């Protein structure tokens, strides 16, 4: 079956350093929303770094669709697994150039569909130059930037979306749009989010609680609350 597996993974950023994650075993179904929850320094971002192959495990292994992650070409991996950071940088240039940044062959319809999904369609249509508006001249809020970054990821129709869902600084509309996108994508693909608190991932199908690099608990919102 199609899954992403972490099999007893230990990883450190430098030889001799303390492990950033230790003996982590996870199974992430290829459909649904998995949330990784834990305080700062727990190892959440490291899970993403391993998945993107920014970092290699010291022990254990990662397997995607039955194939060890290291055997995937980076090109294939980057197409399947897309990461939207808390502050994904936008590139200088137009909105269109930003949306097509990683998928330059995407069509007009894919662009507008992505903009609709993040609730930016109306806003973009109102801009004097529409998609050709230069981002250096347009007044764009932080929340809108985040939604543009998310739209850019959606244009490529990723199978696995990694989302740093630190919604702390997000405005209400952005937070609602992000949750809608998560819910919709999680019906056909895998969405993996990072959050600090359990209260922000009530709807996740699976929640993994990390603490000091180790899996401390797993379940869903209800079962985890019952344990605490
Ligand atoms: P995480 O989401 O990885 O658990 P946070 O986003 O809460 O961690 O960041 C932990 C601390 O580090 C916060 O005080 C935050 O302001 C700071 N921080 C996070 N990312 C950056 C960054 N890119 N540059 C500078 N400080 C950062
Ligand atoms: P979280 O995302 O939960 O805040 P991280 O995965 O960023 O946690 O960090 C896990 C551990 O790895 C922490 O002890 C952190 O200091 C360390 N770490 C994270 N990134 C680096 C890095 N680039 N270099 C060295 N240590 C790092």
UniProtKB/TrEMBL annotation:
Residues in domain ABC transporter? 4-228
Classify the source by domain of life. Answer: Bacteria
Subcellular localization is given as: Cell membrane
As for family, the record states: Belongs to the ABC transporter superfamily. Lipid exporter (TC 3.A.1.106) family.
Could you identify this protein by its name? ABC transporter related protein
Shown chain mapped onto the complete sequence? 338 to 565 of 589
């Amino acid at each position: 079956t199609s899954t992403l597996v972490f099999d007893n993974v230990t990883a450190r950023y430098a030889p001799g350093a303390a492990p950033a994650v230790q003996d982590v075993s996870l199974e992430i179904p290829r459909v649904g929303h998995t949330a990784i929850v834990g305080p700062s320094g727990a190892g959440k971002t490291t899970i993403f770094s391993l998945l993107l192959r920014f970092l290699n495990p010291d022990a254990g292994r990662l397997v995607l669709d039955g194939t060890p992650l290291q055997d995937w070409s980076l090109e294939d991996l980057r197409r399947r697994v897309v990461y939207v950071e808390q502050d994904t940088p936008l590139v200088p240039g137009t909105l269109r150039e930003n949306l097509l940044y990683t998928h330059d062959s995407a069509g007009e319809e894919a662009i507008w569909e992505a903009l609709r999904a993040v609730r930016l369609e109306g806003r973009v249509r109102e801009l004097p130059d529409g998609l050709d508006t230069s981002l250096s001249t347009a007044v764009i809020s932080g929340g809108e930037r985040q939604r543009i970054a998310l739209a850019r990821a959606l244009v490529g129709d990723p199978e696995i979306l990694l989302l740093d869902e630190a919604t702390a600084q997000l405005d209400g509309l952005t937070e609602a749009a992000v949750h809608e996108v998560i819910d919709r994508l999680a019906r056909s693909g895998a969405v993996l989010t990072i959050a600090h608190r359990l209260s922000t991932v009530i709807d996740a199908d699976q929640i993994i609680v990390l603490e000091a690099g180790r899996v401390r608990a797993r379940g869903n919102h209800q079962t985890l609350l019952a344990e605490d």
